[in-house]
Specification:
Rossmann fold; 11 helices; 282 residues; 6-phosphogluconate dehydrogenase C-terminal fold; 2 domains; five-stranded parallel β-sheet; alpha/beta; 13% strand
Length: 282
C-alpha cells in the first residue's frame, strides 16, 4: 500500500474532498493539501476534515507533492495540469477525475511536451448529484470502478502507480484508451444525464405532486451542476450525439409498438430492457 509524504488536491469538492478524507482515514499521506481559488471555501473544507492544510497559492500547494489530483471541471483540467507541472519535480505524478478524457489528454500533451508523461488520466465512477465538500465521504471510492486512461507518452510505471493510488482508496481499476473511455461513458453516464434532463423538462411543474419514486429515481442526476454538465456534453460532443442517435432508435421502436398496438413487440422490448437492467444487479 503506498504511503505519501504529501498529496495535493486541486478543487476540494465532492470528489476532491472524498479523496482527502480517504487518504487521512487510511493513513496514506502525512499531508493532504487542498488548493482552490477562494479562502473561505477552502477554510470550510479544511474545517470539516477533507484536507490537513489549504492554500490559494498553487505553486506553494503542489511543491514537494508526491501526487497531485486535479478535481476541477473538465474545461480547466489541461490548464491546471500544465501549471502544476511547472512547479513539481520529475518524480511527482499528476492525475485527474474528469468525466471526459480524449480532449484533456490531447491538450495536456500539446501544452506540456515531454513532461506530459507525468500525467495519467483517471475517472472514478463515483459521485452524486450533490456537490461540494459537505457531501464528501471517506468511503466514496470503496469497491467503485476507476478508469485509468494512459496516453502514448506514459510509461508502465506511472500508470501502475496511479492505479495503486486508487486501489489504496478502496477502488477497483480498469485501463482504457481515452477514446474508448469517452465512447463508453457517453452511453453509461452522459446519455443517462441527457435523458434525465429531457424527462424533467417534459414534466410540467404542476404535475410534480403526482411524481412518485420512478420519476424521482429517473431524474435524480438532472439535479447535478448544470455548468459542469455543459462542459462534459460539449467536450464529448460526438460520442454523446452517437449515443443519443442510438437511443432514438430504441425509443422509436417503443413508440411504433405502442402506436401500432403491437403488444408482442412491446413486451419483447420491455423484456429485453428488463434483462439488461437485471444483469447489473441492485
Amino acid at each position: 500500500m503506498p504511503n505519501f509524504d504529501k498529496v495535493a488536491i486541486i478543487g476540494v469538492g465532492l470528489l476532491g474532498g472524498s479523496i482527502g478524507k480517504a487518504l487521512q482515514e487510511r493513513e496514506l499521506a502525512k499531508e493532504v493539501i487542498g488548493i482552490g481559488r477562494y479562502k473561505g471555501k477552502l477554510s470550510h473544507a479544511q474545517s470539516i476534515g477533507t484536507v490537513t492544510e489549504a492554500t490559494t497559492d498553487l505553486a506553494e500547494g503542489v511543491a514537494g507533492a508526491n501526487v497531485v489530483v486535479v478535481c476541477t471541471p473538465v474545461e480547466t483540467v489541461a490548464d491546471q495540469v500544465a501549471q502544476v507541472l511547472e512547479h513539481v519535480g520529475p518524480d511527482c505524478l499528476v492525475t485527474d477525475v474528469g468525466s471526459t478524457k480524449e480532449a484533456i489528454i490531447r491538450d495536456i500533451c500539446e501544452k506540456c511536451g515531454p513532461r506530459a508523461s507525468q500525467f495519467v488520466g483517471s475517472h472514478p465512477l463515483a459521485g452524486d448529484h450533490n456537490t461540494g465538500p459537505d457531501f464528501s465521504r471517506a468511503d466514496l471510492f470503496e469497491k467503485r470502478m476507476v478508469v485509468i486512461t494512459p496516453s502514448d507518452q506514459n510509461e508502465l510505471e506511472p500508470t501502475v502507480k496511479i492505479a495503486e493510488f486508487w486501489h489504496a482508496l478502496g477502488a477497483r481499476t480498469i485501463l482504457l484508451q481515452a477514446d474508448e473511455h469517452d465512447a463508453a461513458l457517453a452511453v453509461t453516464s452522459h446519455l443517462p444525464h441527457a435523458l434525465a434532463t429531457a424527462l424533467a423538462l417534459t414534466t410540467p411543474q404542476e404535475l410534480l405532486g403526482l411524481a412518485a419514486t420512478g420519476w424521482a429515481d429517473t431524474t435524480r442526476v438532472a439535479a447535478a451542476d448544470s455548468t459542469l454538465w455543459r462542459q462534459i456534453f460539449l467536450a464529448n460532443r460526438e460520442q454523446v450525439l452517437a449515443a443519443l442517435d442510438h437511443f432514438n432508435v430504441q425509443l422509436t421502436a417503443l413508440r411504433t409498438a405502442i402506436a401500432t398496438d403491437d403488444g408482442d413487440k412491446l413486451e419483447e422490448l420491455l423484456f429485453e430492457g428488463k434483462k439488461i437492467r437485471d444483469a447489473l444487479g441492485n
